[in-house]
Please model this.
Amino acid sequence: MFKSFFNKFFFIYAVLTLIIFISLTTILTNIIEAFFIDNKYKTMIEVGDTISREYTSAYYGNNMSRINFDYQISALSTHINSRIWILSSEGIIYIDSEKGVNSLEGLKLNNPSIKNALSGEKVTLKGDFYGLSSTPVLSVIVPIKINDITKGIIIMHSPYPAIKKTANYFFNITIICLFFSLAFSIILTYIFSKRITKTFNQMNSTAKSIANGNFESRVMISSNDEIGELASNLNFMAAELGKLEEMRKSFIANISHDFRSPLTSIKGFVQAILDGTIPHETQDKYLQIVLDESDRLTNLTNDILLLTKLENNGVEVNYGEFDIHYLIREVLINFEQKIKEKNINITLLIDKKEIIVHADKDKIQRVIYNLIDNAVKFCNQKDRITIETTKYKDKVNISIKDTGAGISQEDLKYIFNRFHKADISRGEHKKGTGLGLSIVKEILNAHGETINVTSKLHKGTEFVFTLTILKLNNK
Model:
């Protein structure tokens, strides 16, 4: 029953709402009843004070007849719906607003409340007033004072069931309002729960679809709340996974081609040598081609293994000290032939003075090689490559900038991802598997250094990475 989110959410909300409803009902019952009781007490006390101040003073001062006084008491009794007794200082009831057989005129009362009232206190009671009332009543006892002397007491009884009935009337109205509020909130909760459940089911279905390889699957959510943000992030994840999958497929296609081409050449030349198609006197030339293609396969395999080790932190960085300027010149010599073929202009903006850095020379050589190789590869005839070093505090910034084809802003976000090659038009007729820049990034990460790239399509690209200068040489 409670396996689904909808059932859990709706059940918990319904139970909590019911508990709150019952609690509010109990509290409101007491509050409303207490309000009417307190209000009734207040009204009776005010009437008692009026009787004591105006009527009894006139009566005791012989300014009002007994008949008139009795009439006034009966009228007030009707007005406040309360039975009124006027007692003498001896506790004898000499006026009862209720006449006839139920009248208690002449009865002497002697109880603690009477004694307290005779001593000047105002008393409130709830109950049967010491057995004199057949139904529960609210009773108020007010002393009659003339010149600060207690001449008697006034006792008023208001039927409690009548007050309870009034309180229940307002209570029922309140409960009806609460009930409709409860029903409305439960309906809204049901609709909201269904909506959330539908959204979660959609996201769950999309997540399963993505897990099964369908990276085109999307969650259709238009809300701007946290659920909408979660759906947006899920869609973004699917898009990124889709791009990664495209890069993976591209990598497989590229690497398959890069493995197949040299293998085809090797197999063809070896087969030609074995069946005598290639004369003995020219075999050395074709064996050299076989050797070159074998080296190409070896380098490609080493690139893949190196990147895998670097990503798994499996390659140890062997720190040493070397001159970065010398290393740049040394690497640049390897591209002399390619530079001449494309008639590329090389600008070296480096100081003659050496800069000794603290790093793994072999791996930094690989970084520089890959970056220069990348620049040469995407330069056209008569383009320019500029290599510059700049000191900044304890770091040296190495910049390798070309005026080649450039990289689109979309490709720039993924330039260091493994498998990634820039757009097809740039990669057409170009060798490479998209591992070079990934290797650069991982090597520099292993050193704790940074690399940044800026590029404009058809304008050129600049890579800038940092190395730590040896402290002994940092002036």
